[in-house]
## 1
Amino acid sequence: MALPEFELESFLPYRLNRAAEFIALRFAAQYKARYQLTRPEWRTLAALGSSGRSMTATEIGVHSSMHKTKVSRAVFGLEQRRWLKREEDGRDRRLEHLALTPAGLSAYGELTELARAYQAELSTTLGADNMKALSKGLRAVERAIVRSAGYARPSKI
Amino acid sequence: MALPEFELESFLPYRLNRAAEFIALRFAAQYKARYQLTRPEWRTLAALGSSGRSMTATEIGVHSSMHKTKVSRAVFGLEQRRWLKREEDGRDRRLEHLALTPAGLSAYGELTELARAYQAELSTTLGADNMKALSKGLRAVERAIVRSAGYARPSKI
DNA sequence: AATAGATAGTTACGATTGTAACTAATATGT
DNA sequence: ACATATTAGTTACAATCGTAACTATCTATT
């Protein structure tokens, strides 16, 4: 009569969600307080800044697993701050190439300082080899994401 | 003049968020289609079902890293389906002990079947030892969550 | 060249969310 | 014992989000 065992504590989606929420919140508090940035705005800024090149909105969405309307609004927000500018593609006028302005780049630089500090703090808290293990596991998930983006419709991510 | 390096690809909050979002979405599609459950409702049901005992709303929130208003609404939703009942604490009348009804338990049983299947699929996709690594890393984060809940205000999580 | 289908991105709108304020109860300090 | 602070949980409200529909453009088929 006993139910077959199920340990929520070992169920990956639940654990990942919980961990992500916990880890993200503390960092979000910093850039929110300092720059009034929303999470999608920070993620968009980070995607652009880290890539070191211009990207389309769709690319940003795939890269960060954000819904396209989220990206669209984040881009609009960053544009209003003049941290980002759009440039129309010459050949395909549906595409917009998004790039950080000097002001955007400088904000990105300051934010990466915070990020670096937070990452260092995490490394101390979690321990170096737990970080390594986490990183290895995440890399496997990332490969799965890339693979599935290849087959399936990216807009559904 | 070059900015100090920052690799978004190695920044834990970003990576965790992306992975969690990706992994959770596929599973959410299943319980949404099958039971019209929301994510907070599933997480609440799972926390209760898996613990095998009654819990308070606050305990559920800490356990699942969900905001207390999210928990409050999820509890209300599950109560309306008659999957959960509340019982007042005799000594402290602010507390409500939440427990699954037989119907709730049976739904939980069916959902854990889906969960188990999904976990198995993930294990195949990611590979057993990547799962192990991920699990080890998550366990470290979980310890950090527990520690911080001890000191800091849990309502802020 | 014309039509149908696909894709990039935006937006209207209903649903979901978090903040802050609230109620009700308990705990604490004097 | 009384005032004050704290805690559990709910709710009003404004902000945010995702679905679906939309515009504009491009690609493929005939």
## 2
Amino acid sequence: MARITGSNGGRTAEAIRRAAIRLIHRQGFAAMNLRELAAEVGIQPGSLYNHIETKQGLLFELMREHMQDLLSAMEAALAAAPDEPMAQLRAFLAQHVLYHLERKQEVYIANFELRALEPANAEPILAMRREYEDRLIGLLEAGARAGELQVADARIAAYALLAMLTGVCTWYRPGGRLGPEEIVAQHLELALSGVSGAGLGQRAPDISAGGSAPIERMRSIPAGGRTPG
Amino acid sequence: MARITGSNGGRTAEAIRRAAIRLIHRQGFAAMNLRELAAEVGIQPGSLYNHIETKQGLLFELMREHMQDLLSAMEAALAAAPDEPMAQLRAFLAQHVLYHLERKQEVYIANFELRALEPANAEPILAMRREYEDRLIGLLEAGARAGELQVADARIAAYALLAMLTGVCTWYRPGGRLGPEEIVAQHLELALSGVSGAGLGQRAPDISAGGSAPIERMRSIPAGGRTPG
Amino acid sequence: MARITGSNGGRTAEAIRRAAIRLIHRQGFAAMNLRELAAEVGIQPGSLYNHIETKQGLLFELMREHMQDLLSAMEAALAAAPDEPMAQLRAFLAQHVLYHLERKQEVYIANFELRALEPANAEPILAMRREYEDRLIGLLEAGARAGELQVADARIAAYALLAMLTGVCTWYRPGGRLGPEEIVAQHLELALSGVSGAGLGQRAPDISAGGSAPIERMRSIPAGGRTPG
Amino acid sequence: MARITGSNGGRTAEAIRRAAIRLIHRQGFAAMNLRELAAEVGIQPGSLYNHIETKQGLLFELMREHMQDLLSAMEAALAAAPDEPMAQLRAFLAQHVLYHLERKQEVYIANFELRALEPANAEPILAMRREYEDRLIGLLEAGARAGELQVADARIAAYALLAMLTGVCTWYRPGGRLGPEEIVAQHLELALSGVSGAGLGQRAPDISAGGSAPIERMRSIPAGGRTPG
DNA sequence: CATGAATGAGACTTCATTCAT
DNA sequence: AATGAATGAAGTCTCATTCAT
């Protein structure tokens, strides 16, 4: 596709990373082949090896960078929020949704290609993932201790929330009907108050009576997983 | 692994389906190869073709059967519940979680291997999936019209709920600390009332103060993509 | 080259072995490629893998079979000879030359492709090779103890003799001027009595005065190759 | 291994030659790759081409230099010896063994990588090799004519002697139990008188009765081929 | 219904070599 | 004289699939 002629040096490496993210997201790591990746970048398959170690190594690098960025973004968000349980929780959830809207392909890959990592490579990625989850669990427990949250089981609640919020990756498309802020707001409400809506606050007006006000239909794989962009 | 030697006749076909579900779930469709599948069943690769049409055809069959079962289960659950919005919604959500607990491998495959289907095969599967989603959207809208739900956007809410509830596939293991009923109950609460817990009803006692009461940590691949990052 | 059409089953495996011996002998293991090998056999490259495990595995099998045959032939020769030092020594040397005339390609491979074996594969081959050498060393020592041989160092002498006798592989071609028996006889003389010819016995008449009576010139690999197995 | 960083100028060319000899000897020409060679020298693969023409050209150069040196050494040895058949023969054989002890890697390459030379490059090398062999054949014939040698066939005898004496390359290691002079002496005896020891002269005392007085066992690939140094 | 062997395409990766900088 | 990136060919091996037995 996009032939980047004259691409030299460091540009090629970046082009490979970007094309790889696109292709892995679209087809899955196992189904992506290096011929295709090279063609996207505009070089010969063998030339990839000036920039990557192996196909497996490429996946690992992509996932590592992604997890580091995610952790950094999360820490920054928490640092910027008031130091009290509910504010911290809201900050965590909001940044999670935002990050997932902005980098949904990387997110998708990080979620679904863990099984494609060799055990030695999976280990550090899993460690970072646990660090992220444990942060949320800690916030939920703090909120519960403060009497501001009702969580029967913090771990289950954390997993459920993350699954819900991560779900936006499966249908969001930039430039769609809803802007990021609105999507973030609605998910915060759902996370905190559920659909029954005994919410805590600034709830958006209920527009459901007027029809489902559809976002684009999920073309492919709604929840969990599937699709791409 | 489990070599079923001497498996003859009709049993072979069933053994193939089961092994395929296991392998696709574990490795993904593209990464599964028919050598491996045949070995699991205890036959030679060529012999698979007495029972399947192609690798692609096998995937399609598995997904079609799964979607039919899911739709049947959902219809049966709704038929068995009182015909009023909240009861119907609870019935839908509860059966969804239950079904996902019981058949998490098929669910996973159905969610994440859609991209592996050839377009002609994807179409009927997508149609069934839409039928399922639309049922939930309808219930949410009915609840909103009846004034019992607060949903800003029924479609977004439906996707978010499905993502959350489908997430159980990624960590649930039969025989774990929590039984299916409890998991269903907690997720119903989260879906209806969120973590802030301004719930509507039979809420389980808050045990979070006593620590996170952990389920087993997701050991491998949270799968489906759960959260992560 | 020689396309063996309709070659099925067991015949293919044998054809592969033979072609591999020919090609490895001609080009070396590293320089032989499986495309070429497959073409010689008349099948597709991938089809080789119905009969071999890997390229490396093929080499190992060839060498193992060769060494086993060599050891068997040696033991048989010794068993058939009178049980006294010089007769045993003569039997060993004669069978060595004969075996090397008849299977010079395998011998060559066994000598020169040891370095191409992975360490784990080299080990058992080396063990067999030592067994063979030690037999000769033992015979030389026995002859010396009996006062029938003059060897300053049995190991050095053994290596030197094996190198000399193995050398026939480098120039011998069936159907040449000299028959196997004559070649064996001359080498026995050289081994036992050297060129100065203070021999022990049935020495062939000296024909060197009449010109060098050339065998074919060594086309490829002259001396170099020392001993075999 | 030995990275010679900052190797500049003319030194690089020499470093390449030395590293190439080491690598070709260890692995064979086909199995050696230029990446590895460059790494040994401490430069990038592309930089090799400032010093060599091609991989093939490098091999040819190494072999040509070696053969020229060998021929020179032989001529010098003959010139320094008394001009009578047996003295000339002894001089030839002694210098052959000595040269092979001192430059066994080059010798090995010259013997076994002839097949890796393109025909056009092989031709001049083969011519030099024939020149060397013919010298020995001439000496054997002269000795026979003088009645001092018993050779049934001078060419066969020459090949057998060269094979035997060249064999030292396969097990000799500098600093081992036996010094070069002793190795030369023993091989002269074996060449002239064989193991039966009806020798002509200054024979070393027979020490074989006291056990085999072993040199180090050939650790790796004794013979023919394999190993390096 | 199972097998064993074959196919043909294609996968990842290596490698000698070139060339602008 | 060295570098880093590119090439293009080729190498080993895998895989879905076919088919005679």
